[in-house]
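Handoff note, outgoing to incoming analyst
You'll be picking up this chain. Sequence as last confirmed:
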Amino acid sequence: MVAKTDAVHEEELRVEEGNGIPAAASDSKSMIESCCSSPSVVTLTQKLVAEVIGTYFVIFAGCGSVVVNKLYGEVVTFPGISVTWGLIVMVMIYTVGHISGAHFNPAVTLTFAIFGRFPFKQVPFYMMAQLWGSLLASGTLALMFDVTPKAFFGTVPVGSDVQSFAIEIVISFLLMFVVCGVGTDNRASGEFAGVAVGMTIMLNVFVAGPISGASMNPARTLGPAIVKNNYRGIWVYFLGPPQLAQFLEHLFTTS
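Most recent structure output, in case you need it:
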């Protein structure tokens, strides 16, 4: 009984220190531990650097495919853009997941914090790191390409703001649903967490890209908006995720 109590205490300490998955998880959780958690020996500075770099490459590759497609005769094509977004997220999850948890998205960070799998005191730092990564990537693209208003690589509603808001709610829910399923529920097998999240983003871009730009990520929207000074309809991409995170907490709370 004492051993069990000590194990529970150790698990709580590890969760408090920033681990995405409790220590009591079985060996089948090893991959998801590396993808959605970070070991206690990693410093906060290292985590933030990993988030900046990971977010940078996600935005650079994803938004870069949009710019290249618009400026060079649609050589990438819309399906190519969708696949690019999915692939870069998947690759970055497996690259820096063992360091920072591979959030790259303020909504994901908030979701993990609400679930008790990430310390709230680190949330502002993670969000700032993600925004910096997005700003740096957007600035790089703006310097590399002559980004005309038609080739804007941010997210703006194509139809009405309400329509874009509705579809952002749906696709953000799907993304958070998958993230919670593979990243916070101890009953799930997490070896393919990166694949699951990457595929979800790819599918969401396929569905919502022509309507809202398929943001699902406030940092993805805000970085290009600041760099190119284009804030049209930006409220659409900021209202939904916090409410979704709280709702999903009730679905995936385990005893």
